[in-house]
Design brief:
With 279 residues, the protein is of the alpha/beta class. It contains 9 helices and 11 strands. The protein is globular, with a radius of gyration of 20 Å.
Length: 279
């Protein structure tokens, strides 16, 4: 499609994103999937960080959308766009702010013509253990304080959102339920990344992080986190337990039992499955 209304045409100069860890992972999947970066990309729940990420990996026509601000006002859980509107749809740490993360992902896949990419929190036994030991907290308490307690939470409102965490299996079930008519390929990578600043750590008073930050000193604690990040990512079993979940979803052909009739998808007449009915 041509450049949509509200698209940012990126020049040769742009600022680097705060989240540097996403760049090599994102670039890997863009290359592997041979994504055409000349096509417009729709960023959901987006801001300047999304613009920086997408421009850094080579996209030049970027449409930023959000609930109440941005170039295109869109609700991730009810995207008012036709099916297959954009070749690529992207969300960076957005889904856990939704009331229904599954619905938002289903909507992203609906309006994507080829690919959906998203980064969010990973669900692992390591993080469940960290939460149990109070080194992590299941709600993003403290984030709304950066917005005068008026935004930054669930649906960008004043209520701190639950930190919904993903697994590849969770994505598989979600997209199969939302789009059973189509074959969909899912690739995922988990890893550790602590992109935090001193003030971020001090606001996490619901966990033990703020206490440790005060005891060790913010700079020393950040050095400790980065050392743990590097060591864990170098060892695949530990990397799998990481806090980040990057997912690449590609839309494929229709299922062999699906055909299009009168503008809608239906089961093929006379199609005989070799599978028995579920028990």
């Amino acid at each position: 499609m041509s450049t949509a209304a509200g698209a940012c045409a990126i020049g040769s100069e742009h600022f680097l994103p705060r989240d540097q860890s996403i760049l090599p992972v994102f670039e890997y999947y863009l290359e592997r999937l041979a994504v055409d970066r000349t096509q417009p990309v729709l960023a959901i729940g987006a801001g300047s960080e999304d613009l920086a990420i997408l421009s850094t990996v080579g996209f030049r026509h970027i449409v930023l959308s959000n609930l109440g601000t941005g170039e295109l006002i869109l609700d991730a859980e009810d995207i008012q766009l036709p099916d297959n509107s954009y070749s690529v749809v992207f969300a960076h740490t957005v889904l856990h702010h939704c009331r229904s993360p599954h619905k938002a992902l289903g909507e992203m896949l609906r309006v994507a013509r080829q690919h959906v990419f998203f980064l969010d929190a990973n669900d692992s036994w390591a993080f469940r253990l960290l939460t149990r030991l109070k080194f992590s907290y299941p709600y993003e308490v403290g984030v709304t304080g950066s917005f005068d307690y008026l935004a930054g939470g669930m649906r960008n409102g004043p209520i701190p959102n639950y930190m919904y965490r993903w697994t590849k299996r969770e994505v598989e079930k979600c997209v199969a339920a939302y789009h059973p008519e189509r074959r969909i390929e899912i690739r995922a990578r988990t890893y550790w990344a602590f992109d935090v600043y001193e003030n971020d750590l001090l606001t996490r008073t619901e966990s033990r992080v703020a206490q440790m930050t005060k005891a060790l000193g913010p700079r020393n604690f950040i050095r400790l986190l980065h050392a743990a990040q590097a060591a864990s990512n170098a060892f695949p079993p530990l990397r799998a337990q990481g806090n980040r979940f990057f997912c690449a979803i590609s839309k494929g052909e229709l299922q062999p039992w699906i055909e299009e009739r009168n503008g809608q998808f239906c089961e093929k007449r006379g199609y005989k499955s070799s599978l028995s009915a579920p028990l």
